[in-house]
Model the fold of this input.
Amino acid sequence: MFESKYSGPDDQLAGDRSRLDGETLWPAPTAGAALSGHVSLPGSKSLVNRELVLSALASAPSRLRAPLHSRDSQNMVEALRGLGAQIDEADASGEYGPDFAVTPGELIGSTTVECGLAGTVMRFVPPVAALALGPTTFDADAAARGRPMEGLLDALRQLQVDIDPATRSLPFTVHGTGSVAGGEISIDASASSQFISAVLLSAARFDTGVTLRHSGERLPSLPHIDMTIAALRDRGVQASSPELGIWRVEPGVIAGRDVTIEPDLSNAAPFLAAALVAGGSVTIPHWPAQTTQVGADLATILPEFGARVSHGADGSLTVTSGDSIRGVDIDLSHAGELAPTLIALAAFADGPSRFRGIGHIRHHETDRLAALASGLGALGGDVTEHDDGVSVRPKPLHGGIWPTYNDHRTATTGALIGLAVPGVEIVDIATTAKTLPQFTELWHGLVSSGTTDATLT
Done:
């Protein structure tokens, strides 16, 4: 039986293993049989926070159906309410909470925006605040204050927005004057595609719109910018990318919209990968036939690991395990948010793997490459960090403490490992509430599907 090196004389700690140095420990459930799971997921964080911003800037009310209710989305709601938008909860169109009814209002500053750990809030809202009248102060959880902001702040300063102090990170204050002239700007978005999306989302309200050029050597997560362009066009905004690395948004009206938020396909990653780790199959309903979400790439990436993927006539997607998990050599520069799940899969593969193009995920909620390398190493794994990614050489794993570093994707990765490795205890699983508050309930239901054929919807 596994005995953690953290066992001590404290009776409560030794008895239920519930806490470690003030941190909550969650025993990751181990699968006792091949899975037969059906997991319905809440809405996309990336989509709902873009739609909330556009709804607050629109010329008419909007309704967001089946939205995500999580810490990130709630931080966005509170930020936009503080700037003058009316956001009410309406009858639920989905199973995970009420809809959002958004009525635009006059943008007034003189408020403080608490970003929490949400990159979309700390980056998407400052351009909105520049359109407000009065100062808006931005701050965040201590763990988020070091996240890259320089590209966005540089963009706003090029647009003659007054920001103090002369800082590259949170906290800072945007002194809104009620308008932004717009124009041509050039920024380095190598650290985050959100710098570009942030400017584009508000640009139709700038006097002359914006032409934005990326000046860096690489551009991660390009599909997220495509998502922003699509969301703008769906609201009648003239938004385009005339050539790679250049975007143009014309000034004009942002229309109100009634929109149903797609399920979060990136949050589907650990659930679908579970079919490979534990064996069996996992089905996600309401998988969109066409989408700008990078999580859709799971349907083509997981077969590289040996999975079988099928699309149901009812709009579902099912992943079924193959004979083994294969090692891969893959560039994930377009889909870095999937990397933690896929790196965990590689730890169980039949050969080594190399993941490339994901150096930018060092600047997410934590340095994800370092977190995964050290976490897997502590459990007996063999992971080497590179500037642009990691190499994984599969080795037998054992139980132990899995730190999460305030990162929801690191937390779900630990749960995935625990499916096949008894004794994995995850620090602060509650951090998953950032984008998926129901994670532990859904995960336990998935694991139980292997022994009871239960269906969780």
Remarks:
- Residues 17 and 189 are 43 Å apart (CA to CA).
